[in-house]
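Tip: read the tokens left to right.
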């Protein structure tokens, strides 16, 4: 259990957060060890897990901080620190665990995204960037890990935690218990789960899968050429999601473009 124990703004350090979770796990009959390193020290975190348990099967990347400001008030330090904790931290820990999972032909990796990244949220350009960036990492690692049975998914949770306390109305905060999120995490971390590259919203006892959707669009003649006025004239159809496509990978994403090139070729 890793937790530097810093504030929600990323300041300071306190070992009590990780220690408390370890005590709860041990009290319930489980086995756990606490780690108080920064998530950017991924090698140290993973090595402690290997020293303690002999192998590493699951990584849940859940470290995060907030530095909420509107974009025009954002300072480099606010942007850089959020990136460092969310994105670089997740990279460092996962990168350290990855070769061990590949070698043993088994692994489960879970990244924590956010609806702030999926849909945007006022004052959270740094946070939204980091969280949706983690889903981009999820998609690529899912492709790279599949042949070694390393499955990678992302969750976008809503829960009452240290980071959201004070941001959610108290009566709602009390209902959004973390244990209403953890069953999904446990399933995604299990051998039973064969899902990979998924993104799941979860909270309050509800969960659902998110997918990309794209309009069928409009194909212009590359040989004849087209201009902004042509784009404007077709704008309604470009944005028409009737009979929408749901590309699962780059090959599917290029399908309409390649068909358009072939249609107007020579």
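Filled-in amino acids:
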């Amino acid at each position: 259990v890793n937790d530097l124990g810093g504030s929600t703004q990323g300041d300071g350090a306190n070992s009590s957060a990780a220690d408390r979770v370890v005590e709860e796990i041990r009290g319930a009959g489980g086995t756990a060890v606490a780690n108080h390193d920064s998530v950017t020290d991924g090698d140290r975190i993973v090595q402690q897990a290997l020293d303690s348990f002999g192998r590493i099967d699951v990584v849940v990347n859940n470290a995060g901080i907030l530095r909420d400001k509107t974009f025009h008030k954002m300072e480099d330090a606010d942007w850089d620190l959020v990136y460092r904790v969310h994105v670089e931290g997740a990279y460092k820990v996962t990168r350290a665990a990855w070769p061990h999972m590949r070698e043993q032909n088994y692994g489960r990796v879970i990244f924590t995204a956010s609806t702030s990244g999926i849909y945007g949220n006022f004052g959270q350009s740094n946070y939204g960037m980091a969280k949706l960036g983690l889903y981009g990492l999820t998609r690529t690692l899912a492709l790279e890990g599949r042949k070694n049975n390393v499955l990678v998914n992302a969750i976008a949770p809503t829960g009452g935690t240290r980071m959201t306390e004070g941001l959610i109305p108290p009566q709602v905060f009390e209902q959004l218990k973390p244990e209403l999120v953890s069953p999904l995490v446990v399933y995604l971390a299990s051998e039973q789960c064969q899902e990979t590259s998924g993104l799941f919203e979860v909270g309050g006892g509800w969960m659902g899968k998110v997918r990309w959707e794209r309009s069928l669009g409009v194909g212009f003649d590359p040989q004849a050429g087209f201009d902004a006025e042509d784009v404007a004239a077709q704008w309604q159809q470009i944005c028409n999601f009737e009979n929408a496509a749901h590309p699962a990978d780059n090959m599917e994403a290029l399908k309409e473009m390649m068909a358009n090139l072939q249609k107007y070729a020579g």
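The CA atoms of residues 106 and 149 lie 5 Å apart. The first strand starts at residue 58 and ends at 61.
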